[in-house]
Q: What sequence folds into this?
């Protein structure tokens, strides 16, 4: 198998290492990796613990990805016999890399979509889906929005809904609520993801569905207190807009209400910046002719993500004391029997609270969010590609359980646990009407 990554970062380096290990576990010989990058100096930073991966990798350095998009035949020797092209750079390159995949007849995958625009809000479609029929026509798969959230969260929700369809009694999903926890205890300020991305996501007016209608709220409004499984104490969570809102509504249009919330100390920092108007797009006072908004300046001066070697040293020196990621999805159900109905709530999700255990492993240097993101993406992509059932077109993770079956889901969940990512499924409450 040949994996081609466009860009390299905290999540994609984890993903590549996991793909290498999965090839070894399943007897796939001589896997190869190509990283298309704009600056070769970043290689050492992200691969300081990945000696074997480096031995199986090549690097194509280009000034801009556009050079490849505009003249793909010039680079044919690099992409020949590729199994999948993976966009691990910014989402704005998704469509161009998909078109490249069609040129070279390879599968495609990405980790996120460009959703923070009025076009997406108006259409409720990912731009990747515009190429669905082209991929189907060429019997190629485009697996989009992989990772942990979005990604594994969607898959777990899709698995439960597929199970409900097979029950003897009619079961309706009345509401889906996803709660994310991103919490780190550290002596130093540490971001688990790029601060400029966090600023864009958390300052965007969150959208959600209620009674099938899309509604918007102000950032950091309508907060709730939520008690996450296996986390001590309640956490203030705030509405957030992510890919799950769109894809779950697409896949399960009968669900009238879909919401997402996020909480944790990293989110609290962003909330404070927002409430101090430090994420404002207003121009700085006294500089009416300037194009520098307060938001732009904050993005420029706020501390960036630490490099993997620094993150590894923070763990070793006990600067980072603890970290936990959790994604919990509550499904509110109505189960109809002959003479009565039952209101019930199920909770499914993932938890990663073994961050300090990554020390002295090939994943040392990942963040507590990039690690489960990369692992979730690698497992989902790999086992979809090598599975006995072949699928094509543009596909989101929640559709995989119905397409690939229960055995495939069980295998994937067991592999997640091998990588120290826990899963939970709880029946919370029932009420008979």
A:
């Amino acid at each position: 198998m040949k994996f081609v990554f466009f860009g390299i970062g905290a999540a994609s380096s984890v993903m590549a290492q996991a793909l290498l290990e999965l090839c070894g576990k399943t007897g796939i010989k001589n896997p190869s990796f190509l990283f298309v990058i704009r600056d070769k100096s970043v290689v050492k930073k992200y691969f300081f613990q990945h000696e074997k991966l480096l031995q199986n990798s090549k690097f194509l350095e280009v000034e801009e990805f556009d050079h490849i998009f505009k003249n793909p035949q010039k680079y044919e020797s690099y992409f020949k016999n590729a199994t999948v092209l993976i966009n691990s750079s910014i989402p704005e390159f998704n469509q161009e890399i998909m078109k490249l995949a069609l040129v070279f007849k390879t599968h495609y995958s990405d980790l996120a979509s460009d959703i923070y625009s009025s076009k997406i809000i108006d259409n409720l479609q990912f731009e990747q889906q515009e190429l669905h029929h082209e991929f189907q026509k060429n019997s190629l798969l485009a697996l989009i929005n992989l990772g942990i959230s979005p990604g594994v969260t969607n898959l777990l929700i899709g698995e439960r809904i597929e199970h409900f369809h097979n029950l003897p009694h009619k079961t309706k999903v009345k509401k889906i609520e996803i709660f994310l926890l991103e919490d780190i205890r550290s002596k130093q300020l540490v971001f688990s993801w790029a601060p400029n991305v966090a600023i864009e996501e958390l300052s965007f007016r969150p959208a959600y569905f209620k009674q099938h209608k899309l509604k918007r709220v102000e950032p950091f409004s309508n907060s709730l207190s939520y008690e996450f499984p296996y986390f001590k104490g309640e956490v203030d969570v705030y509405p957030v807009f992510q890919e799950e809102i769109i894809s779950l509504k697409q896949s399960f249009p009968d669900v009238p209400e879909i919401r997402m919330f996020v909480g944790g100390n990293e989110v609290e920092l962003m909330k404070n910046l927002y409430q101090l108007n430090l994420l404002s797009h207003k121009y700085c006072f006294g500089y009416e002719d300037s194009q520098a908004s307060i938001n732009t300046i904050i993005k420029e001066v706020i501390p960036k993500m630490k490099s993997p070697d620094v993150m590894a040293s923070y763990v070793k020196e006990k600067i980072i004391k603890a970290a936990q990621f959790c994604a919990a999805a509550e499904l509110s159900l109505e189960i109809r029997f002959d003479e009565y109905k039952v209101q019930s709530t199920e909770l499914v999700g993932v938890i990663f609270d073994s961050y300090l255990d990554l020390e002295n492993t090939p994943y040392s240097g990942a963040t507590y969010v990039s690690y489960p993101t990369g692992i979730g993406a690698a497992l989902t992509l790999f086992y979809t590609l090598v599975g006995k059932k072949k699928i094509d077109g543009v596909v989101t993770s929640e559709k995989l359980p119905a397409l690939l079956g229960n055995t495939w889901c069980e295998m994937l969940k067991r592999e997640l646990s091998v990588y120290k990512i826990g899963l939970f499924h709880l029946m919370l409450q029932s009420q008979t009407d």
User: Anything to note?
Assistant: Residues 10-25 form the longest helix (16 residues).
